[in-house]
Amino acid sequence: MRLIERLLPHDTRYDFIRYRLIAFGITALLILGSITSIVVKGFNFGIDFAGGILVEAQSTTGPADLHGMRATLGGLGLGEVSLQEFGTTGRDVMIRVQRQEGDEKVQMAALGKVKEALGEGFSYRRVEIVGPKVGGELVRDGVLAVALSLLAIAVYVWFRFEWQFGVGALISTFHDVITTFGLFSITGMEFNLTTVAAILTIAGYSVNDTVVEYDRVRENLRKYKTMSLYELLNLSINETLARTILTVSTVFVTVLALLMFGGDVLHGFSVAMLWGLIIGTYSSIYVAMPMLVYFNLRTGKDRAEDEAKAEAAAVGEKAP
């Protein structure tokens, strides 16, 4: 905390709003590039969405050797195979195998290969074959969850502040979400339910950062009635800058640890979160705040003049 205070003293006066047009250009390119990649290339859907075989296996000889199991199952020629340890004993493993081309008999044959490769040292507590219909329903539910979260965020900010703030928060959060979708589309990383959870977390983090800055704008509108909106927005960003960087740094270190030591299961989640921290901080400063310049946001001076006019009109009506 002291280091950040030394690097960013309370009286910083960086002119962030000055570069709003450049920031808007970068934002437009990111959104356009993301949408183009999603439409043209699509996603590398994981088993959750594309369908496949789900197996809960328990080692009967001690803790499961995930590395050895990955090597064994990966050599069966069944496509994507993911393993996830769960429980507290280290013996329970969740195995996902991508859906094979063909009918249910083909899926059962693939399941037989998995059991044969693992051998006698495992018992099977649960076996499911996820069809494309279930995967399609999960895709629809995931899109619906993201859309409803964006709508709820906009409504919350709208009621807490004014409609200009609600629109700014909605566009800023949409920017963070769509560019995260674009990241997974462009890189071809696996897109699964864990990724959807990361995107919803990013939306929540982004709007939290935006609300903190918007709240400071609202306070300063009451405090500095003669200050121009341009200067007031810059002041509000600078006053919350140390808090923003401290929060981002703390979460960044935590997520970086997940990326380095969380294994394959948390890789997509960690990458999405790291990207979300960076892009969310950028959008709060360079998207949500500068947009208020163009939304005809009323300053404290404007409100004081309106109140004075209203009082004068009231006095005129009472006069005989």
TrEMBL record:
Protein export membrane protein SecD/SecF C-terminal domain segment(s): 116-296
Gene: secF
Family annotation (InterPro entries): SecD/SecF_arch_bac, SecD/SecF_bac, SecD/SecF_CS, SecD_SecF_C, SecD_SecF_C_bact, SecF_bac
UniProt cross-references to Gene3D superfamilies, sorted A to Z: Multidrug efflux transporter AcrB transmembrane domain
Pfam families: Sec_GG, SecD_SecF_C
Localization terms from the record: Cell membrane
GO molecular function terms attached to this record: protein-transporting ATPase activity
GO process annotations (BP): intracellular protein transmembrane transport; protein targeting; protein transport by the Sec complex
Keywords, ordered alphabetically: Cell membrane, Membrane, Protein transport, Translocation, Transmembrane, Transmembrane helix, Transport
Family under the similarity heading: In the C-terminal section; belongs to the SecD/SecF family. SecF subfamily. In the N-terminal section; belongs to the SecD/SecF family. SecD subfamily.
Keyword Ion transport: no
TM annotation in the entry: 21-40, 142-159, 241-261, 273-295
GO cellular component: plasma membrane
Entry function: Part of the Sec protein translocase complex. Interacts with the SecYEG preprotein conducting channel. SecDF uses the proton motive force (PMF) to complete protein translocation after the ATP-dependent function of SecA.
Topological category with respect to the lipid bilayer: Multi-pass membrane protein
Protein name: Protein-export membrane protein SecF
Quaternary state and interactors: Forms a complex with SecD. Part of the essential Sec protein translocation apparatus which comprises SecA, SecYEG and auxiliary proteins SecDF-YajC and YidC.
Organism: Paramagnetospirillum marisnigri
Taxonomy, superkingdom: Bacteria
SUPFAM superfamilies given in the database record: Multidrug efflux transporter AcrB transmembrane domain (SSF82866)
